[in-house]
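Title: Prediction job returns without error message
Component: structure pipeline
Severity: low
Priority: P3
Assignee: unassigned

Description:
Job completed but the reporter wants confirmation the result is attached to the right record. Sequence as submitted:
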Amino acid sequence: MAYSVKLLKTVAECDLALALANDELKTLRHQQQNIDYQRDNTTEIATEVQTELSSLSVDIASLNSLIPTLAEGPTRKRRTKELRIATNRQAELTERQELRGAVALLKRELALKQVEVQITETEAFKTEVTEHKATL
């Protein structure tokens, strides 16, 4: 997109436009770093959560098959408690997955790409203003 830089009539106006662009770039780069950090953390967490959920599913299925075959007693109580703990942990991880799972990762990747596009466009704006400033 071509900017209306020809409307800038003085070096001072160009300097002001460049200062505003530099401030915007500073903010955008800070956002980029934050989102990149969040994305990296989300990637790790999403992988860990998925791995643990898979393991818990196997454990829960195993316990659901085992418990009905056990006689009443301490072993059955212990296995029932293990099932309850595993089921609670699975629910907790499923909720966490919504916040830090694959969809959250994609959301952060989209946000990062949007900021990168804004940075590129702000740099293009600066280039146009700088080129125009040289003609004044």
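Comment from assignee: result matches the submitted record. The mean pLDDT is 93.
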